[in-house]
Structure formats: C-alpha cells, structure tokens
Amino acid sequence: MDLGLSGKRCVVTGASRGIGRAVARSLAAEGARLLLVGRDAQALTTAAAAIATAPGPAPAGARSAAAPGASARASVETFAADVTDPAAAEAIVAAAQKRLGGIDVLVNNAGTSANIPLGELSEDDWELQWQLNVRGPDRLMRAAAPLMARGGWGRIVNVASSSGKRPSGTNVAYSVTKSAQLALSRAYAEAWAARGVLVNAVAPGPTTSELWMAPGGLADQAAAARGRTREQVLAAAAARTPRGSLGEPQEIAAAIVFLCSERAANVVGASWSVDGGAVPSII
C-alpha cells in the first residue's frame, strides 16, 4: 500500500530510541525526509546513520543495477533539543524549514516516566511531566500547524499512553498529563482540520522499548518497588492484555505512520489505543 509519504518532510521528537526511532525508520522506508529530534546529539547521530542505510523502497521510476531490495540512502537530519525548553519548538521548526525546506508531518513522541508513588511525587516530577506531555507538544503544534496549513496539508500525531485513558498508580503525574495530552490533541484537531492539518493521538501500552526494558527501566523499577523479579513484572504486564504480550516499538510505529499518511485523510481527533487491548474500552 502506497501511503503517500514519499518526499514528505517529517519531524519526530524522542527519535533516538524506542518508539520514536521505530517511527523514523518506518517513515524513511516510505521515502519521507526526516529531522530527528532528541536531547542526546550522539544518540541521534547513531540513530540517523542506522536509519539512512536501512533497506527501503527505491524512488519511484528509479532503475538501478543494484541488488534486488536495495534503495537509495534515506534523507535523515538531526537536531539536538530538549522539548521542555520554551524556546525549543521555534528552533525545531526553524531547523525543519532550513534543512528540509518545510514541515509536513510532526510526531510528538518525546517523553519518559518513572515508578514513583503518588505521595512521593515532587513539584519537579509534576513539572517535568507537564512540560514533556502538554506544554512541549503544544508549543510544537502551535509553531508547526500554521506552516502546514499554508500548504493545505499536514499531519500531527501525539504519542500519548494507555495510562492517559486508565490512570496508573505507578506515576500519577505521567497519567494525568497524558490525559491532558489527549484533550490537547482533540482541541488542535478541531482547530486545524478545515485547513488540511489533521491531528490525532495514539495510546500505546507497555512496550518492549528501552523505557521498559533497559537496565534500571520501568520493569526493574517496578520489580524493586513490589518485591518481585523483573521477569514476574513483565509477565504480569503482558497478562493484563487480552493479546497476552507487550507491544513492540515497530507495532506502535505502524499505527503512527498510517496516521501520518494520505490514507488517513478521514481520521481527525482520534485517540487510537495501540495497547494489545490493555484498556477495556472502545473509546
């Protein structure tokens, strides 16, 4: 299926690992041009190099003596920025204009969490989640949507969480601000759809990304907090889904990339659960 993303200028935040990196890889495979954004410049460089040389479709009409399945090197740029910085959004969009010639697609994926009981959440913990999940995406959408609207076409996907639909006690600040991110997505969808800019959200559940699986990540934190083994925590998380397994970053990316595409022309203001059925709701 041709998703109509060839040549589209795409910005992905939190792109050096996990879901963000999987999204960038999938967009590149569709022939999109990319600006990867994250805080760690070296990690971005590593991710960009891997994405640029990964197999993908050859340009339409191209003829080559290369081996079957070989493709041209993808166009991948990087920009180091912290989306919680109030000045970051304008800088990121300016970088997209300079390096890509504009912006057609924005994926707000930057985020993190930690296992912190409600009574132990500090002012800084609350502020971090507010800036990551609400203010950062808001500033980026505010900067990017008008540019997309000038061309009459744009896609914005906010990567929320299943815990924004069913609050989790492991980090209430994360859950509350992910709920707010879903509301923000709907507000922007209604404000910009008539001008060709479609805004949607996805809500992943537990995923085998570095956030969960890396040493010291959410699996290890939950194990320490509950007096259980890492394996027990992961098995319990998988068992809470009808599917019986955690999601893979590439599975989440597939839904996100579809929402970025021409094929999603009639999807506006949606909040797609991509959580293996973890949240028992059809909303």
From TrEMBL:
Gene3D superfamilies according to UniProt: NAD(P)-binding Rossmann-like Domain (3.40.50.720)
One family name in Pfam for this protein? adh_short_C2
* Alphabetized InterPro entries for the sequence: NAD(P)-bd_dom_sf, SDR, SDR_fam
Q: What is its EC number?
A: 1.-.-.-
Q: Which GO terms describe its molecular function?
A: oxidoreductase activity
- Provide the family line: Belongs to the short-chain dehydrogenases/reductases (SDR) family.
Query: Which PANTHER family does UniProt cross-reference here?
Result: 3-OXOACYL-(ACYL-CARRIER-PROTEIN) REDUCTASE, NADPH-DEPENDENT REDUCTASE BACG
Q: What is this protein called?
A: SDR family oxidoreductase
